[in-house]
Amino acid sequence: MDVEACQAVLRDMFAPWVQALGLIVETAAPGEVRVRLPHSEALARVGGTVCGQALMSAADTAMVLAISTQLGGFRPMATVSQNTSFMRAISGTDVLVLARVLKPGRTLVFGEVEIRGALEDRLAVHATTTYALA
């Protein structure tokens, strides 16, 4: 799956509120996807930082796309777990979300997500994930 195919999955397979995040697929390779979450005041909490709920949603969505690239196309799946560590705030900039498949299996897929502010190279959020394939 290439960037266009991932963007089509994002457009066609996700709930309207996820689509409203405005995620943009920037890169796609087997088992790895990078998406951009555009800066929006609608996603900011008190103090102007991007809210954790938006970051976790972006991480979950990017991982579904990464798994889809690993599988060669979208397949129904469910999030079994997402363990998210917030290390620093992201404020006033787009957010870059890199999702990687660590171990694909027949029924479970394990992954890792790194999130950074677009203007910084420092890791802001780290998540580990597990998905059940339908």
Secondary structure: elements and pairs:
Elements (H helix, E strand, L loop, with lengths): L2 H11 L2 H4 L4 E6 L2 E6 L14 H20 L5 E10 L8 E10 L3 E10 L5 E11 L1
Describe this structure in words.
By secondary structure, the protein is an alpha+beta fold. 26% of the residues lie in helices and 40% in strands. The model has no long low-confidence stretch (mean pLDDT 97). Strand 5 and strand 6 (123-133) form a beta hairpin. The protein has one domain (3-133): Roll (Thiol Ester Dehydrase, Chain A), CATH 3.10.129. The longest helix has 20 residues, at 52-71. It is globular, with a radius of gyration of 14 Å. It has 3 helices and 6 strands. Strands 1-2-4-5-6-3 form a 6-stranded antiparallel β-sheet.
